[in-house]
Write a structure and sequence with these properties.
Order of helices and strands: HHHHHEHEHEHEHEHEHEEHHHHHHHHH
Mean pLDDT: 82
Distance between the termini: 23 Å
Largest sheet: 8 strands, mixed
Number of helices: 20
Structural class: alpha/beta
Helix content: 55-70%
């Protein structure tokens, strides 16, 4: 979502880094470019004006003038202001109440029902919760069926009473949750095409009855500046504890999302980063600012890896790499682990300097990975453990068994040998990472 904005800001900051001293002229030039980048990305003009004034004021302060590297100081100021604009401190989900009651509200089409699935999946994995979905959208055709389908996919129970009174449904659902040890209750409420009195009154009635710990507004990140009106419309009647922005991976300028906290004082708590049911992330202003400015987000990569990768398997592989005994069976095992991280291009984008190295433009076809797996799986266990024995006749058999060509097998074996050599050099301390 912030890719174009990130590219523009990174180019501006690259220029300023090379300046020996900071003057009103070069600061004026840089802030003009930053202002244009933010406005073109659809950031609210009042927010842009305040942001630029803050950056200018700090950049022309005595501390920067006396600094040995004023360019780096300017970059730090821009990053700090961007973090502040995004909300400053990370706002955590409420998870310490038993049970935790969460109401999800939003307009129709914002992705509310799917987001319930994603949020239930996240709290179960990360916080070891036992969630219960409550179907209270009694108006949209097939809304209850959709929630049940998501529940089946995730093996999470859905409580529903059909198209009866939503207030009665949530009251009975809480009793049911107590009896079945559900400690995280996610309530799917009705949406409308626009905010109206009837919708808001129903939500207020539910809120008054159950006193939820969280009221999260699910809002489509692609609606542009109208995102602010939607948040304010709900927040004027319901005390929102946060927003979840969906479709953050969409092809949109996305700057309106940068304006949310500043203009509404409602924190962004979660962001949707893919359509899959594991495509929801907790929102961290510091990490998001680092990503936008091309400084990477290694912590998020590490956290994702900790969630999905088997630690013992990873340790074994590292030892084998260091000793030079890494074989194609280990390679296949690692590929399976890496696939759990999600699309590889999303991981590459989070590396420091990804834009500079062109990693943010890489598209990895999942079919290529499937082809590599097919080749390795067509080998015998002995061949996978001893790739050097794979000669012409074996290559022909492997190619035929995998539906690939002999040259594809040759290419894989060559690349594997090159990778082994490189890993050995890294482990011996003879090479440095390129970032």
């Amino acid at each position: 979502m912030f890719e174009n904005l990130g590219d523009r800001l990174q180019n501006v900051l690259k220029k300023i880094r090379g300046y020996g001293k900071i003057t009103e002229d070069n600061i004026g030039e840089m802030t003009r470019e930053i202002r244009l980048a933010l406005l073109e990305a659809d950031v609210n003009y009042k927010v842009v004006k305040e942001f630029i004034n803050n950056v200018k004021e700090k950049a022309l302060g005595e501390e920067v003038k006396k600094s040995l590297s004023p360019g780096e100081m300017f970059v730090k100021i821009v990053k700090d202001e961007l973090v502040e604009l995004l909300g400053g401190e990370k706002e955590d989900l409420v998870t310490d109440k038993k049970p935790t009651i969460v109401m999800l509200v939003g307009l129709q089409g914002s992705g509310k029902t799917t987001t319930i699935g994603k949020l239930g999946n996240l709290v179960r994995k990360k916080y070891k919760k036992n969630p219960l979905f409550v179907a209270c959208d009694i108006y949209r055709p097939a809304a209850i069926d959709q929630l049940k389908q998501i529940g089946r996919e995730l093996n999470i129970e859905v409580y529903d009473e059909g198209k009866t009174n939503p207030v009665d449904i949530v009251t009975n659902a809480l009793e049911y949750a107590k009896e079945h040890n559900n400690d995280y209750i996610l309530i799917d409420t009705a949406g409308r095409l626009h905010i109206d009195e009837e919708l808001m009154q129903e939500l207020v009635n539910i809120k008054d009855k159950i006193n939820p710990h969280e009221i999260l507004l699910v809002v489509d990140g692609m609606v542009g500046q109208d995102i602010i009106n939607v948040i304010e419309g709900f927040n004027n009647t319901l005390p929102l504890t946060g927003t979840i922005i969906t479709k953050l991976d969409g092809d949109t300028r996305g700057g309106a999302a940068l304006s949310i906290r500043h203009l509404t004082n409602v924190p962004i708590k979660m962001v949707g980063v893919s359509e899959k049911l594991d495509g929801l992330q907790e929102f961290d202003p510091e990490r998001m600012a680092s990503r936008i400015l091309g400084m990477g987000d290694i912590l998020s990569i590490v956290e994702k890896a900790e969630e999905v990768i088997d630690e013992e398997e990873a340790k074994k592989s590292v030892k084998k790499m260091q000793s030079g005994k890494f074989d194609l069976e280990d390679f296949l095992s690692q590929m399976k682990q890496i696939k759990k991280l999600g699309p590889l291009e999303n991981i590459l984008k989070m590396l420091p300097g990804a834009s500079k190295l062109g990693l943010n433009k890489i598209n990895i076809d999942p079919k290529q990975i499937a082809h590599i797996e097919a080749i390795v799986l067509s080998m015998t266990p002995k061949e996978r453990r001893n790739p050097e024995i794979i000669k012409a006749s074996r290559k022909m058999r492997i190619a035929k068994g995998s539906g690939m060509k002999v040259e594809d097998v040759n290419r894989l074996l060559t690349q594997f040998e090159q990778m082994k050599k490189m890993m050995k050099q890294f482990s011996n301390g003879n090479m440095k990472l390129p970032f």
